[in-house]
Each structure stands twice: as structure tokens, then as C-alpha cells.
Specification:
single chain; 126 residues; mainly alpha; AhpD-like; 2 domains; CMD-like; peroxiredoxin activity; EC 4.1.1.44
């Protein structure tokens, strides 16, 4: 593991997903999934999200589309919150999911809209 890339990834992961969420994921890591958590932090968040060529907002927008298409509701929920943190507006999220529905199928759009509304309600509650 490259400590510099891992540390950069940990910083970005916490900034996007929230410190409490990341700390909980790491706290619950055991011998089985700890290597996976380290890989996600170093590779996904450090080596990829840590690149300068795309801003975090753009990366969030791409993630929303890809995760919606892959039908990964737990990850989509987490990344909707992260997208809001990265400055993606609700209107932009709507347009992303309209694009998903057009190119990946209406059922993917239906689920994406439903999850987004649930996340917005949670965020609005505070």
C-alpha cells in the first residue's frame, strides 16, 4: 500500500462521504474486509478521485449515472449525498437521472428518482 495515496484517498473520501460514514466503515472492518477498505481508500479515492483533471463535482455526476445504471441502491444513496456535498444541485441530479432513464432504461430512472427523493428528505430533516 502506498501510504501517501492512501492518506490522500482517506482525506477525499471523508470530504465527499462524510467523516462519520467513513469512520464507521473503517471501524467495522475486520480481517476479511479490511484489505478491501484499504484498496477502496487508496485506489478509488486516492489514485482516481485524487487526480486533478476532473473536479469532484464532475466525478460525482459521473458516479451517479454509473451507479444508477449498475443498480447499486446503497452506493447510489451514499453518492447522492456526496454529490450534494460536492455542489451538484438537485436540478442537476434530476437531469442525470433523466439521462439514465433515456439511455439505460426507465426502471433504472424510477429507482434513481425514488432514492434521490428519500435522500433529499433525509438531508432536509437535518
Amino acid at each position: 500500500m502506498d501510504k501517501t495515496t492512501h492518506d490522500k484517498g482517506l482525506e477525499i473520501r471523508k470530504a465527499v462521504l462524510g467523516e462519520a460514514y467513513v469512520e464507521n466503515a473503517l471501524k467495522n472492518a475486520d480481517d476479511f474486509n479490511k484489505p478491501f477498505q484499504e484498496m477502496v481508500t487508496e485506489y478509488c479515492w486516492g489514485a482516481i478521485w485524487g487526480r486533478e483533471e476532473l473536479p469532484r463535482k464532475t466525478r460525482s455526476m459521473l458516479n451517479l449515472a454509473m451507479i444508477a445504471i449498475l443498480n447499486r441502491p446503497h452506493e447510489l444513496r451514499v453518492h447522492i449525498k456526496g454529490a450534494l456535498t460536492n455542489g451538484v444541485s438537485r436540478d442537476e441530479i434530476r437531469e442525470i437521472f433523466m439521462q439514465v432513464a433515456c439511455y439505460a432504461g426507465v426502471p433504472a430512472g424510477v429507482d434513481s428518482f425514488r432514492l434521490a427523493r428519500e435522500v433529499f428528505a433525509e438531508v432536509d430533516k437535518g
